[in-house]
Structures are given as C-alpha cells and as structure tokens.
C-alpha cells in the first residue's frame, strides 16, 4: 500500500503492478484504512506529507495494524536524511530532527527494526516475534486497542492504540501463486465458516465460470473483444455484508 497525497503519485503503484504484485494507493485521515489487520507485505510513503510522529504516532500505529509480521515500511523524503537536505526542503534543522526523533521513537515502541537508511530512504521491518514484542509494549505502558474483532475497521476512527496482531502461522506464497493458494488464515481455522475444502471448491468453481465466460459473446466485449481473455488477470471480489467476513483472505489484483 502506497500512501499518496494526490493522484500524481500513482507511479509507484503502477511500478508494482507491472511486476505482478497487487498494490493500491492509500490515504490517511481520521478513519482507519478499509483493510483487515495484517493485510500488507509493505507500506510505502514517498513524500506523502503525513506527520508520522504526530498525535502519539497514530498514523504509524495504523500502518503497523495493516502490516503483516515481517512486513516492511518504506519512508522516502522528509525528514529522512535531514542533515543533508534541510536547505533544499527549506525547513529548520531543529524541526526536521525532532520529526525524525518522534518517528524513531514510535517505531521502537512498535518493535520495528530499522533495516536501512540511505540517502532519503529509510526501511523498517515489523517483527515476526509478536509475543515478545507484546511483552515489551506492556512493560513500556503501551495502549492496546480494546476490540474482540481486529478486522472490524469499516468507518472506525483511528486510535493511538496497538492492535494485537492475529496469530497466524504458515508461509505465504509469492505472487502470483498466492492468488490461488489456500491462505494460512484458513488453514489455521482463523476464518469462521471457511475451511480449506470450501476455499478450494470455490476457487475451482470460479475457474470453471471464467472458462465458460470465454466461450460466449457478451455486451462487455469491446470492439477487439479483449476483456474475455484478460479476465483471468483481473481479480475483483464482491461479498455480501450478511455473510461471513472474508476480506482477510481475498486478494485484489488489477493489472
């Protein structure tokens, strides 16, 4: 997920899509991002103008909620490398130094490990050892969100509290294999009402539907009839609100 203040920043998402990796543009305001917890492998900010250290680190904490254990947060631009760039940015050194100090402080509380800082790019990795991290956070007095469903985020206000990362074990496949592989959340029984068997059955059912679609003419076919052969690379998921919540196991890929 790439946070961007305007549509002109879409290039970084396009860069990922062209390499077969699903990507979306995200925005942060006062409401949580509409994605389940531990949904993304990487979050990215390229001069996105978000005050990551402000308001008790509430925006960085929301990124932590959306990242999987082992996921990466990439920050490009101010205040990274402020010592060399503050003149170009036309901002006081003291202000930029304090801004980065707050970011580093929040990242430490979240148990993120800084993997690299070079030029104007810094990369942190979310810890895989969530249990140990939780113990350290409790000792430091970190606030934990009081919720029984960490994925119930629609129209929920952001809070300066840490969401407990769902306990899911199992290795995720790389893309594009992951699109059709059974998610570890299902294999571990973390999604009520969905089993490995039902997931595989549903997967095969839609493969049959797509193959059948290619054999008929449709009003959706354009002048050159490219939508039918392309549809296998277009994954769109619609789900009924009255049914089991399956957003945690859905992949959305637009290529």
TrEMBL record:
GO cellular component: endosome; membrane; trans-Golgi network
Main location: membrane
Membrane topology: Single-pass membrane protein; Single-pass type II membrane protein
Protein name, UniProt field: Methyltransferase
EC category name: transferase
GO MF term list: methyltransferase activity
Matching PANTHER family: METHYLTRANSFERASE PMT2-RELATED (PTHR10108:SF1119), SAM-DEPENDENT METHYLTRANSFERASE (PTHR10108)
Keyword vocabulary terms for this entry: Glycoprotein, Methyltransferase, Signal-anchor, Transferase, Transmembrane
Family classification: Belongs to the methyltransferase superfamily.
Subcellular location: Endomembrane system; Membrane
Enzyme Commission (EC) number: 2.1.1.-
Cross-referenced InterPro entries: Put_SAM_MeTrfase, SAM-dependent_MTases_sf
GO biological process terms on file: methylation
Pfam families according to UniProt: Methyltransf_29 (PF03141)
